[in-house]
Specification:
The complex is a heterodimer of chains A (351) and B (275). Chain A has nine helices and 20 strands. The two termini of chain A are 34 Å apart. Chain A has a six-stranded mixed beta sheet with strand order 6-7-8-3-9-10, sandwiched between helices. A five-stranded antiparallel beta sheet of chain A has the order 13-12-11-14-20. Chain A is of the alpha+beta class and 351 residues long. With 275 residues, chain B is mainly alpha-helical. Chain B starts with a helix and ends in a 10-residue tail after the last helix. Classes of the chains: A alpha+beta (351), B mainly alpha (275). Chains A and B meet through strand 6 of A and helix 8 and helix 9 of B.
């Protein structure tokens, strides 16, 4: 188990503030946050590249706060892969184990070949990094980090600079490898979809602080602050005042001049979050179980490629995601009147 | 035919524009001013006379003195300068900016003044001279004196050049090596040195060339044993301009020849360039 206790660190423009985390053996742990949150710095503290100003890092009961990086046995994969440019791919992979004392050349080669096969990169073994594609580079980097059999595997946005298809492939690869070797894996990203599909648990980070820790489900269903809600895709966040109405068993939330209903018991000032994909548009008020039906006027339609983002003025601006088919069926355009429908359960409220 | 040629000129003019053509013109002017005189002097003497001069013992000796002394001065600069360049490239510390300008000081000081400074410190009465005398080293009119003179004026080129090459290495390479189990020293050798040695050698060549060309400081601290530049000066002072020209040309040719050869040896192979 890896524990970070009250870690604080100032470095250049970054400022980690009292970080506390406990990561279990074999866990795939994702640190999610915007750029500048201090995610990389936190990773480098765990690797020993930087040392904390305050606090402790404990691995399996041993204090490793001041242990130099070469004695920590952490594998590190960088966004830019950082393969040694003067070494061929196989020598990059071999670097870590060749440093181990009393290891025979034959054993090194066996291991290297095993890892070349594992990552399906035999064909690039004799090439220099500058001639490899982004995906191949990251495979070599992963092999290089894993061949030393690390206790902790640290991945710093490893998929941020490869194309979409390679990203999908590599993501599968990383998952497979994690299952096979089961090191403590800490994966840094700003991409919520990556976090969602890889993580056992996620820590959301902002401005040097951990703002929420939980399983992907907890984070995505139950964000506990406006920042987290926004970051994980609740594009519609409104402030209002709530009052629980016993007769209908719902809370009435007053936002400016409109009232919406939530299934939660709420009182006082609240933030209301709605995902753009949880809203249905219609020309006529829908006769359904949906409690919230509000009419408004379309002010903007953005083509996002596969979906359209429609901005509607309902007293305030609300964003809705719909398919091209729906847009054409409803015959919507800028200036059209439309009804905005969503379930009271689709609301996520933060008190 | 003529119309086609004019069209082609107009096309070229439009392709590059007045701005670029003007800069090309200025660059040609610069080359004329700098390189012109060097080419000019080469034609001031019969090639046979130059060959003869080049093969006289005292000219050969002077050139060897210059090259060897500058070689040792460069060696000293590498031993003491590379660690400092590394510190300057990798760490932030108070007074770093000040130290940086301090290193430039020898470039700024007039070389005759550098000679006076060194003579004051390293003569048998000076503080440094007295100290090194304890170990039997003297500097006034000795090879050691020449080496110190060259070292003083040329080491900044090595320190700054090496620091710049260290700065060009992606810091993630070091981090990768450290996490893979390499100690600080091993990382320094495997990453920093093995990725920058060409740059370090380039800086060393510059440092060496600067040492070879040094006259002022060397002349004042140790005018004998005679080095190339001092020899030319003696000939000029003793017998006038025309007496100095053959030796001067010899120095130009030999220095340039060696410089080119080292540069060719030190070229980077294409496939190993940093990605």
């Amino acid at each position: 188990m890896l524990e970070l206790q009250n870690i604080s660190k100032k470095w250049q423009d970054f400022n980690l503030d009292n970080i506390n985390l406990a990561i279990n053996e074999g866990e795939f742990f994702v640190i999610l946050g915007p750029s500048g949150a201090g995610k990389t710095l936190l990773l480098e503290l765990i690797a020993g590249i930087h040392y904390a100003d305050k606090g402790k890092i404990i691995y399996n009961g041993k204090d490793i706060t001041l242990l130099p990086p070469h004695k920590r046995n952490c594998g590190f994969v960088f966004q830019d892969s950082a393969l040694f440019p003067n070494k061929k791919a196989w020598k990059n992979i071999a670097y870590g184990i060749r440093l181990q004392k009393r290891i025979k050349y034959k054993k090194v080669m066996e291991k290297v070949i095993e890892f070349l096969k594992l990552f399906k990169i035999e064909h690039v073994a004799n090439r220099y990094p500058s001639t490899l594609s982004g995906g191949e580079k990251q495979r070599v980097a992963l092999a290089r980090a894993l061949i030393i059999n690390p206790n902790i595997l640290l991945l710093d946005e490893p998929l941020a600079s490869v194309d979409y298809n390679t990203m999908v492939q590599l993501k599968g690869e990383i998952k497979r490898i994690h299952k096979k070797f089961k090191p403590i894996t800490i994966y840094v990203t700003h991409n919520r979809l990556e976090a969602m599909s890889l993580a056992d648990r996620i820590a959301v980070m902002n401005k040097g602080k951990i703002v929420q820790v939980g399983t992907p489900d907890e984070i995505f269903r139950n964000p506990q602050s406006e920042f987290v809600a926004k970051f994980i895709g609740f594009d519609n966040i409104f402030s209002g005042t709530a009052k629980f109405n016993k007769e209908i068993g719902l809370s009435e939330i007053q936002i400016d001049s409109m009232t919406i209903y939530s299934a939660d018991k709420l009182y006082g000032n609240v933030k209301v979050c709605i995902r753009p994909e949880d809203i249905i548009l219609s020309r006529q008020p829908l006769k359904s179980s949906m409690r919230n039906v509000i009419n408004g006027t379309i002010v903007k339609i953005d083509d996002l490629g596969t979906l359209f983002e429609v901005s509607i003025n309902i007293g305030t601006i609300i964003k809705v995601l719909i398919t091209q088919n729906a847009l054409l069926d409803l015959g919507l355009s800028v200036g059209s009147k439309t009804y905005v429908n969503f379930k009271s359960a689709a609301l996520k409220t933060i008190m | 035919m003529i119309k086609m040629k004019i069209d082609k000129l107009v096309w070229k003019y439009q392709k590059y524009g007045t701005f670029t053509i003007f800069f090309v013109f200025l660059s040609i002017l610069l080359i004329l001013l700098l390189i012109g005189p060097i080419v000019y002097i080469l034609f001031q003497e019969d090639p046979m006379v130059i060959l003869q001069t080049m093969s006289t013992d005292y000219v050969i000796q002077a050139i060897i003195n210059s090259f060897m002394c500058s070689f040792f001065s460069t060696l000293l600069a590498i031993i003491l300068g590379v660690p400092m360049a590394f510190l300057l490239a990798k760490y932030d510390f108070p007074g770093k900016g000040f130290l940086d300008s301090l290193i430039d000081l020898p470039i700024l000081i007039p070389h005759s003044v550098a000679g006076i400074i060194l003579l004051t410190a390293y003569s048998n009465h000076g503080l440094f001279g007295q100290f090194f005398n304890l170990f039997g080293f003297t500097f006034f009119d000795t090879y050691l004196g020449i080496i110190i003179g060259m070292f003083f004026v040329s080491s900044p080129f090595l320190i700054k050049g090496t620091r710049d090459t260290f700065l060009m290495v992606n810091p993630n390479y070091e981090k990768a090596a450290r996490t893979l189990g390499a100690s600080r020293f091993k990382t320094f050798i495997d990453v920093n040195i093995s990725l920058t040695w060409r740059g370090i050698i380039s800086s060393a060549i510059l440092c060496w060339a600067r040492g070879v060309s040094e006259f002022g400081a060397v002349y004042i601290l140790a005018s004998i044993p005679i080095t190339g530049p001092v020899l030319v000066y003696f000939q000029f002072e003793g017998s006038g301009l025309s007496a100095a020209i053959p030796t001067a040309i010899s120095l130009v040719l030999v220095s340039f020849f060696i410089f080119i050869i080292i540069k060719i040896i030190n070229r980077t192979p294409k496939n190993r360039r940093e990605a």
